[in-house]
Specification:
Layout: H1 4-19, E1 32-33, E2 44-46, H2 59-67, H3 79-83, H4 86-99, E3 103-107, H5 110-121, E4 126-131, H6 136-144, E5 148-152, H7 157-165, E6 171-177, H8 189-198, E7 201-206, H9 225-228, E8 237-241, E9 251-255, H10 257-266, H11 268-271, H12 278-291, H13 295-314, E10 327-333, H14 335-347, E11 350-351, E12 354-355, E13 365-370, H15 377-392
Parallel strand pairs: 1-2, 2-11, 4-5, 4-6, 6-7, 7-8
Antiparallel strand pairs: 3-9, 8-9, 10-13, 12-13
Helix pairs in contact: 4-12, 5-6, 5-10, 13-15
The structure holds pyridoxal-5'-phosphate.
Length: about 400
């Protein structure tokens, strides 16, 4: 049992969060329903998931999962002990082909991939240049490394170049997301790739939200944001998650063989943890084969375009829309108002999560709307009508 002074410390810290409308509660997701299953009376339609292609509930994937011969639920060991299998290595070869890199390395999650890669490749004499809106796992990787970390203003490549020019470190790492997870906008990857080349930086792109969603549309390759900008070969290290566009679970890094070998030897979140279970690798492999057909992305794009057209009609303040991006932030500002708006939408049958500090800056709270192939035009237009109604009063 905690003694009185210790429990007082935790209690007052939580009270403080409550007073600032920053307190977080776990809620049961049982009543949040995938768009195709929404029964307006008992469930709310999910506009907050990262399952942009609807693959987490895809019927043929679920059928395959039922039929999989799963001899073991988990390898119960790290990759370097007895957890490495031909199934994981096959998935890594598929991911390397997808990302057009020499090799890949699967991590248990995208979070662990970011933390494990950045903290491992950056040493005391390294300078890291990181966008201010980069995901918490990138921030934590930077913190764990002993490098000098420079945070540059979001997508401000002019400022980035100034900071890099003044850096005295020999080894430089430039890291950005592809599609930013909360803002939904794209990094200026063409400019960023040019800067990385000019100043000899190792370019790392975490494309958790663009992977399998965008890419070179003409080639229908959907290899992510670097593909969309035509700079995939300028990215040295690609990091991503299997738990978003693919609707599965896990994380991975695609990179040169040399970096993979370095990570296998030195990346602590790879070495000192159990491997991703084989059946999750197998299901990811099937999910990739469906995603690679490019049909779901076309459907998603139709929904994004429909959202854009309808939102323009209603002229909603604070709504930031980008072509091709399934993430639409609605910036409200005050934390309390954002929570209230989220609750009102929930009463009308729409689940749109309120995002607050520290995920975004203080007083820049937002509703993060995420679109999926599974939404119907009717669900999208009803959501927009309701938002317009609540915000214009
Ligand atoms: C940009 C970004 N990178 C990494 C992650 C972590 O991925 P995972 O959920 O696989 O741990 C997330 C998760 O939200 C993310 O948004």
């Amino acid at each position: 049992m905690l003694d009185k002074s210790n429990s007082h410390y935790f209690q007052s810290s939580l009270e403080n969060l409550k007073n600032q409308h920053l307190y977080r509660r776990l809620r049961l997701a049982d009543k949040i329903s995938s768009p195709e299953n929404t029964n307006a009376r008992s469930t709310v339609c999910d506009f907050s998931s990262n399952d942009y292609l609807g693959l987490s509930r895809n019927e043929s994937l679920r059928e395959i999962l039922k039929k999989l011969d799963i001899p073991t639920i988990s390898q119960c060991s790290s990759r370097l002990i007895s957890g490495n299998t031909s199934t994981i290595e096959r998935l890594e070869r598929i991911l390397s082909k997808h990302r057009k890199t020499e090799n890949s390395l699967v991590y248990p999650t995208g979070y662990m991939a970011n933390v494990g890669v950045i903290s491992c490749i950056a040493g005391e004499n390294t300078a890291i240049f990181s966008d201010e809106l980069n995901h918490a796992s990138i921030i934590d990787g930077c913190r764990l490394s002993k490098a000098i970390v420079h945070i540059f203003p979001h997508n401000n490549t002019r400022e980035l170049e100034k900071i890099i020019k003044n850096s005295k470190q020999n080894m430089k790492i430039l890291i950005t997301e592809g599609i930013f997870s909360m803002n939904g906008d794209f990094a200026k990857l063409d400019e960023i790739a040019r800067i990385a080349k000019q100043y000899n930086c190792i370019l790392v792109v975490d494309d958790a939200h663009g992977d399998f969603i965008v890419g070179n549309k003409l080639l229908k390759d959907y290899s992510g944001s670097p593909g969309l900008f035509g700079v995939e070969h300028d990215v040295d290290i690609h990091i991503s998650s299997l738990s978003k566009g693919l609707g599965c679970f896990g994380g991975y890094v695609s990179c040169p063989e040399l970096i993979r070998n370095y990570l296998i030897n030195k990346s602590r979140s790879f070495v000192f943890t159990s491997s991703l279970p084989d059946f999750l690798c197998e299901i990811a492999e099937y999910s990739i084969s469906i995603a690679k057909k490019g049909i779901l992305q076309e459907k998603l794009n139709n929904n994004i375009n429909y959202f854009i057209e309808t939102a323009r009609e209603y002229n909603i303040p604070g709504l930031k829309i980008k072509n091709f991006s399934p993430i639409v932030p609605l910036i409200i500002g005050q934390e309390e108002k954002t929570i209230t708006t989220s609750r009102k939408l929930e009463e009308q049958g729409f689940y749109v999560q309120a995002i607050r500090y520290p995920t975004v800056k203080r007083n820049e709270a937002q509703l993060r709307i995420s679109l999926s192939t599974k939404h119907t035009y009717e669900q999208i237009s009803e959501l927009i009508k309701n938002i317009a109604h609540f915000l214009k009063r």
